[in-house]
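Recall the central idea of this unit: under ordinary conditions, the amino acid sequence of a chain determines the structure it adopts. In this exercise we apply that idea directly, starting from the sequence alone.
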Amino acid sequence: MATDTQPPHPSGLQVAVIGAGPAGFYASEALLKAGARVDLIDRLPFPHGLVRYGVAPDHQHTKGAAKLFDRTAGMPGFRFFGNVEFGTDLELKQLRDQYHAVLLCVGCQAGRRLGIPGEDLASCYSSLSFVNGYNGHPDAVDFAPDLSSEAAVVVGNGNVALDVARLLLKPSEVLQETDIPEAVLAGFAQSKIRTVHVLGRRGLEHSSFRSPEIAELAKMESLQVEIRNPEIANEPEEPAQQKVVAAIQALTTPRPTASRKLILHYHTKVVDWDGSRARCVDTRLTETAAQGSTADIPAGLLVSCIGYLGVEQSDLPFDHGIISNEAGFVQPGVYVAGWIKRGPSGLIGNNKACARESAERLLADFADQELNPREPDWFGSMSKPTFSYDDWLALDSEEKARGKILDRPRIKFRTAAEAAGFLEKS
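Accordingly, the structure predicted from this sequence is:
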């Protein structure tokens, strides 16, 4: 478990970084290289954030980015405290009293809502809850979607929507090669879903899919792709987007032996969900012309992949899903980085420049100050176990060992209690 030992550092700058995802690690790296001491704090026992819980489980190569974070954790002046929730176990005032600065990298912890009737039915998931579920997030230990219908609807026109659709359509023997939790894998193995409808409100030319995700669909021999409303109003000007459109169009090559189907609907908006069908309208039609334009898509599952929202934090200025900031600066001694700073956009690597900008602003603000050393001791009063990075490395090794037995990348620990129990016995 976490200890209170901290190697001395002549700079004296002590920073609490909240959130052990990519932004938190990139910011910590920049601060440590400048001579600061960093305590990285996360509400989960397990670090790495979106790399562990946001990247699709069949993208194991992308999850390899965690190795870079291990290097940061090995730098002098670094400590990790897992299983500590900001705003509940630890307040901003406590942190401000015990650290020179606090840097929030808490991401976007809520899913955008569709705002339609039926959205709160058990058969309707946000992308946040669905992705958490198939990635074994501690918030989703009871994840067990009903996959007994022949079709599902995925709302959204970005990579997350394509991830969800792909995983719903992949044969279970292929999913066996991922780190999907055993219970979830068993449920997917019994899935009756053979058709997934992906709904985009705008045209094909506005698709936000990346080329690698499209290429993965092309490799799925058992998959037939169809496009509904394929007309393009304005050809994209950017060469990269032109390639995306061409790649999507190429997916429709007939595959007579395909047993699964992905239908990409464009200019389509869902307006109602009753658990057995999605009622949709054509977004190209005006209100006066829309009479009789509704269409029903029979399905037993709906997953909304329309984005994420930040959550207000400790009365800090908040606007449109982010904490208001100037190049990461919020108020004296408080900074932000990552999605809570700029919104949920970009890939994992995009957080590096964002985090570095915030770290540089923080360091500049303290550059001319004579700092008195601070020795944080808040963890001494914690009523529950905290987890150090050494604890995580032991858990990581055990997850991989358990996975190796089953020819899988890893079998994840799901809860703090399970992890703590293993560490106590080892």
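The chain has two domains: 14-109+310-425, 111-308.
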